[in-house]
Amino acid sequence: MRLKPITALVSLLAAQVALAAASPDVTGSAYQADVPFPQFLHLWSEGWSLKGKDGEPLQYATANMPLGAYVHLYIHNPSAKAVPITDVKFEGISLTQAIAFGDRQTDGLWPASVHFSKLPEGEISRFIAAGEPVWWKVEPPSLPPGGFAEVTIRLRRQPKSPVTIEALADQRQWSAQVTPTNSPRFMGTSFSPTLDTICHLPHHDQRRPGRQRRAVGHPARPAAGPGLLSLFPGRL
Q: Which of 123, 129, 149, 233 is most enclosed, with most CB atoms within 10 A?
């Protein structure tokens, strides 16, 4: 009976992978929407670096302001050679081309935006309507032999429908469709003082009302790879 929470969490993670994975070497995906904190609205504004004629920010944060999200894709390199990622596509649009740098520095920084890109107007509109990625990264940028990598895309706005993510390399491609529904995740992971037990704090937005989060402990063993932390029989 004590292992039921562990089994349930594994099932949730497995279901997420089954729904999202389209390529055989995609080990998982995740979506995390921003969480509003209305009690801090008076501390934040959007466009704070852009001032009006009165010297004030052009737009203050409001309770109904749309928020952004993160999309993650976890990929595996089954080959015996390192595989560098050359580009990532969002809804079929190259992020290398879409998130282009401007030709003028602002406060010593080079701004980047889809509005600086040379994409056709139709693709720019589709890119913005799908969530408008503002930055992306691949860690590590080159998959080691038999290794894994995580693709992270930051969206300015939360998409209203599933989005397709593709990671590209020479002669290889990983793709998955990610549904804009918050994924089960671990809020924290820590070791016991003796380093023989790992404690996870799982979280899922769709848990039953009134159900409390509880830490899960299990003997320390290597994880299967990014996005799928291995859960072994343990204790609560």
A: 149
CA-nearest of 181, 194, 188, 179 to 216 is 188
Whole-prediction pTM:
0.71
Tokens of 71: 């999309």
Beta pairing, strands 185-191 & 197-203: antiparallel
The pLDDT score that the predictor gives to residue 124 is: 96
CB 130 within 8 A of CB 67: no
Ramachandran category for residue 39: left, alpha or beta (phi over 0 → left; psi -120 to 50 → alpha) = alpha
pLDDT bracket for residue 9 (50, 70, 90)? very low
d(CA 214, CA 236): 8
Give the H or E element holding residue 201: strand 197-203
Strand partners for 149: 75
* Average pLDDT of the segment spanning 37-51: 67
Query: What does the alpha-carbon distance between residue 223 and residue 37 come to, in Å, rounded to a whole number?
Result: 33
Peptide bond into 36 cis (omega under 30): no
Tokens for 81, please give them: 């050679």
DSSP state of 151: E
Continuous H helices in 42-120? 95-98
With contact defined as beta carbons under 8 Å apart, do 138 and 86 qualify?
no
What's the pLDDT tens digit per position in 79-137? 999 999 999 999 999 999 999 998 888 888 888 999 999 999 999 999 999 999 999 99
Q: What pLDDT was estimated at residue 207?
A: 54
Gap between the Cα atoms of 104 and 101, Å rounded: 9
